Amino acid sequence: MENTQKFKILVVDDEPENIKTIFSLLNCEIYRVFIAYNGKVAIEQAQKHLPDAIIMDWEMPVMNGMQAIGIIRNTEEIKNTPIIVATGKMTSVENLRIALETGANDYIRKPFDPIEIEARIKSMIRLREVQEKTLLLEKEIMEHKFNAMKREMDINLQAFAASKMRLIYLSKKNEELIKDLENFHAFISEQNRTSISNMISELKTNINSYNWKEFEYHFEKVHPNFFANLKKYSPEISANELELCVFIKLNMTNKEITSVTFKSSEALKKAKQRLKSKLGLNTEEDLFNFISNIE
Hints:
Elements: E1 7-12, H1 16-25, E2 31-36, H2 39-49, E3 53-57, H3 65-72, E4 83-87, H4 93-102, E5 106-109, H5 114-183, H6 190-222, H7 226-233, H8 239-249, H9 254-261, H10 265-279, H11 284-292
Parallel strand pairs: 1-2, 1-3, 3-4, 4-5
Helix pairs in contact: 2-3, 5-6, 5-9, 8-11
């Protein structure tokens, strides 16, 4: 609306008498009327003035009303403008169907009845107001959803960052614990050494499994499609290789990865080589770039 608060009506008709009639029927204190004599000019006027409603003649030179409505409905800034088709010739049920399917909101026959035309215009203006309120509500809902999603993502990112730090910290502590257990070998019997070795092996497996499950949960909250997208490139990729891909995506150092996975440097090197082979890559840089670009 303009500062005058007048409702803007675009009248499209190639007959000056019809335009004159509509002018005489509309209260100039309530309505501001714009004019177009064919569909092409109507589109230009609609884009320029953004009317609250359009009264569109059907048969006109240059571009008829149906052609103009089709273009209006596909022009972003005016696509929702209410349109009344006005005609004295195209008055059959089939014509009405065509007009409505093309995008008209209403249909009025000539000659115009003063009460009817104002009632139809008021109806279109109410439709416009409802549309604007609906669009505003939809925008508010979308903003609310976006803010909610952003808050959830922020929470997930914080939880994921904490999970990563905890994973590395616990891995280091567990690595120290395992080293302490291994140091007992020199002070215990052969039989007990075997028990300690079994205990260390079981401890590594259980710790790695527990830490990974928690870490994987937070990772998928932040990167929900990562595993599915990765498997598109290599369906036969193993669970351990998926785990390695996650650590590579997070740009973890080889030392951090060996600490978390309890693999030796040599074992990690071989694991990366197998992974590169499966993905058809040549260098470590290729591997890192490839995995970094997977979302």
